[in-house]
Task: structure prediction
Amino acid sequence: MKDTGNSSERLLQLLKEHFGFTAFRHNQQAIIETILSGKDSMVLMPTGGGKSVCYQIPALALEGLTVVVSPLIALMKDQVDALHQNGIEAAYLNSTLSNYEQQDILDRLPLKNKPALKSQLKLLYISPERLLGERNFLNHLKEKVQVALFAIDEAHCISDWGHDFRPEYLMLGNLKQQFPETPIIALTATADTNTRNDIIKKLQLTHYATFENSFNRPNISYTIKPRKNHFDHLCQYLKERRNEAGIIYCLSRNSTETLAEKLREQGFDAIAYHAGLEKQVREERQDLFLKDEVKIIVATIAFGMGINKSNVRYVIHIDMPKNLEGYYQETGRAGRDGLASEALLYYTGADVIKLTNMVQVEGNEEQSRLMLKKLKQMAEFCELHTCRRKYLLNYFSEYTGNYCGNCDVCLSDQVKSDMTIAGQKILSAVSRLEERFGLNYVIDFLRGSDAIKGMHRGLKTYGAGKEYSKDQWRSFMKEMIQLGYLKQTDGQYPILQLTEESKPVLKGEAVLMLTVLTKAPETKTKPVATKGVAASMPAIEQDLFDALKALRKQIATSENVPPYIIFSDATLSELASYLPITLSDISKINGFGEVKMAKYGEPFLEMVQDYCINHQLYTRIQHKQDKRKR
Result:
């Protein structure tokens, strides 16, 4: 399987020719070279980090077929359409195709010991059920087809430790026995340590390398708002983003329908999506959203896994997700193009109560305990008074500073005050109650509630905290847990306990700075769609950017594909920023490979040229070249 004919220069040539990029990102090249050497790979990479390139470039470099196992039909069609736009022979095989279409695809598979034909497929997308549920097809691959690589997308689905376990994925554990010499690459954006180890075990990977990119999505801003009166806030939020695409997640099918209807009554372009709809209706609605015919889709988590739409500018959760893996994956559907995007969640403590029964697995205490722990961590994230990005990254065993500058906590003007005395009261109460009670009981104890057991009313700290509301005491305690001055046990009924950090505060040897609750000022921070991660990019010509989007939409409509498949918003941003005015200039813009240059270079170049002439502007492409040199 080892391939020595693919040098770094050849791999970069394939990247530029088909995808329009001049350099690999992060550890993409190392992953590709590992595959080409014949080894397996376990890849953890955030949504939008470029996972697909890690198997698409090897598919082009290797002789034979790359089989991509994908859980959703929508993902298959989406990626195949994008590959066709980049001049790559690819297809998907599923029940939506006629018998004639399926046979045509089978006829285009590269066969063993046969000369390669230009029309033969390089990538085939298929579901695990179709791949392994029909023995004839797997045997056909094994006996007749030259299989170069298996790519297992959304690999966390194979693990019952993961947040989206799918039993049909377990069958993939047989691939290594059937194709011992064929490398496997397993890819996921969300997997904790237990899940990633389980993926490796279940796929029977032995000779493999593990790659893990940063989980940080710096272009996404994280915000949590109280659920109370959230609809008014939501409408104001959406008014400021009328021309931007977004996903709103709800917990139930009925709530998606109800919210979509209410939004339409307010004049918003919104439709509902959930698994209870007829298949044809789901496909039509998804297609409308992908093609920018509808800006807002209100959905259950049945929508979106694997959706490649790169210009989703915001993801909103009306209900709290069950765990941080799900939250991370769902929010990761925003800003896949690297431009500024937002994740907004409306939270209420009632979510935790509502979800507690839902996450437990009947007959499996260990699994239930794990799911309850994950739910608790999700709630902790929502109640933070410290950097949300730090907590999220720490959850995935990635450590970072205390300030990210792009979450509501870091951007708030709330000031921490010396709350040492309040902290001492909390710690004293926990101690005098012998570390046997939960947060709510300790709050009632401090406030002198009649609900407190008679045996505890005579303790010294009973009623010593009437100066603060229940919400404020709860906020203090949650923040002290986050800071390590308190800890909570696991389980359905967690109790508060002291830590080593508690002692200096109790003894008055340390100052405790905590956040005092105030009414949060309403902020109107509208994300600018053209503001990318690269702050050094010249200013965007907004009128030109809008005109380029209109041109892209016109071309996409004529070709019956989503606009972002023609070019991403990030590519249009570069055009409207660097103002290329020659074919040589435009070839330096990310996204313009040889195939797309031939198809679309001329109309986009003419639009930029006309804009520069009319506004007496000169090209700024030199800024991009200077940036590369640095």
